[in-house]
């Protein structure tokens, strides 16, 4: 697959769900520019400036809403009011960064929802990988949203994010309209989806440019990710959905999707208890949810918060599942796993 030389500042946004709030929000948004935002390259990944974040308003305890800290981690010394992040910005298409009212109303910094401090990082055990790419796809018929949050496996710090809305290729325009209204209309983000969604093949081309920019993968090698791995909450995303979407999009399954970490298996083996999903993990770990459940970027952030907490608790997070390239058979590496 040829790489599209496209910049990818990964970002996140979230639009309020109420009609009144949504109308007010739309009054702040003007058509986005088709030019992409340049991605910052870093000579030392851990010092990368944060430039992405999003989440939908949700009822959080006051301190969590104001500070966005991971439960159990020391709180920041200064408080800030929680605010949603611009979803146009997460995709490199916000044209309102010079609008003071817009910048005041919406968050444009993902690290604000994923804070880490030195005392928590000191508890992290040596990891076999250097980076985790937390992924949580949305879309049952075809993939509608492809959000990834990259964190440092040793410091737990946010490094970057990649976020794209995905336009189905095997559905009629009427079906797409109904699909999106049912899926994203309730969150008030159907407009941004229609404004920004691109076909899955284009999403992967931009994603390959993104992971290539971080030196996590080289196309010519045809190998797995370099010192990094996807983290998913379950096997569905990479065992089932991505291969299905590749068939619909008539493309070969890329080599970087051949192995991943099922966080449910790590959770089971580390805490010695089963978790049916992200919400169960967050409830048991007393981590307040940020944003809207089933909005991909928000779920990805919340799963990242679980990963951060587990690292701070001393978990070693490693590959749990691997696909055989010749047969496409999937091998589960943990004897004790969620079935």
UniProtKB/TrEMBL annotation:
Disordered: annotated segments: 51-78
Domain (Exonuclease): residue spans on this chain:
131-316
Q: Which keywords accompany this UniProt record?
A: Exonuclease, Hydrolase, Nuclease, Signal
Q: Which GO terms describe its molecular function?
A: 3'-5'-RNA exonuclease activity; nucleic acid binding
The record's section on Pfam families has: RNase_T
Q: Which residues form the signal peptide?
A: 1-21
- SUPFAM superfamilies reported in the protein's UniProt record: Ribonuclease H-like
Protein name in the entry: Exonuclease domain-containing protein
Name the species this protein comes from: Hordeum vulgare subsp. vulgare (Domesticated barley)
What is this organism's lineage? Eukaryota, Viridiplantae, Streptophyta, Embryophyta, Tracheophyta
Gene name of the encoded protein:
LOC123409951
């Amino acid at each position: 697959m040829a790489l599209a030389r496209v910049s990818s500042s990964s970002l996140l946004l979230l639009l309020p769900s109420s009609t009144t709030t949504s109308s007010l929000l739309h009054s702040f948004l003007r058509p986005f520019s088709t030019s992409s935002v340049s991605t910052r390259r870093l000579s030392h990944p851990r010092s990368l400036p944060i430039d992405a974040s999003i989440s939908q308003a949700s009822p959080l305890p006051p301190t969590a809403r104001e500070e966005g800290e991971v439960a159990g981690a020391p709180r920041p010394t200064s408080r800030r009011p929680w605010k949603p992040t611009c979803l146009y910005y997460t995709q490199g298409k916000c044209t309102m960064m010079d609008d003071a009212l817009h910048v005041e109303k919406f968050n444009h910094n993902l690290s604000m929802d994923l804070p880490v401090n030195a005392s928590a990082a000191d508890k992290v055990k040596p990891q076999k990988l250097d980076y985790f790419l937390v992924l949580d796809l949305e879309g049952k018929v075809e993939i509608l949203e492809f959000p990834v949050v990259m964190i440092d496996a040793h410091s737990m710090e946010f490094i970057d994010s990649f976020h794209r809305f995905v336009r189905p290729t095997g559905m009629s325009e009427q079906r797409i309209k109904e699909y999106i209204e049912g899926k994203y209309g309730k969150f008030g983000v159907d407009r941004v989806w229609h404004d920004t969604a691109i076909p899955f093949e284009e999403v992967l081309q931009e994603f390959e440019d993104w992971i290539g920019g971080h030196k996590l993968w080289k196309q010519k090698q045809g190998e797995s990710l370099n010192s990094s791995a996807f983290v998913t909450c379950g096997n569905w995303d990479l065992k089932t959905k991505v291969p299905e979407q590749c068939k619909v999009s008539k493309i070969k399954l890329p080599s970087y999707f051949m192995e991943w970490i099922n966080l449910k298996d790590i959770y089971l083996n580390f805490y010695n208890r089963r978790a049916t999903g992200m919400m169960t993990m967050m409830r048991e770990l007393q981590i307040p949810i940020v944003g809207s459940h089933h909005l991909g970027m928000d779920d990805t952030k919340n799963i990242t918060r679980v990963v951060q907490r587990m690292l701070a608790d001393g978990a070693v997070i490693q590959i749990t599942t691997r696909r055989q390239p010749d047969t496409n058979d999937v091998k589960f590496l943990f004897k004790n796993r969620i079935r």
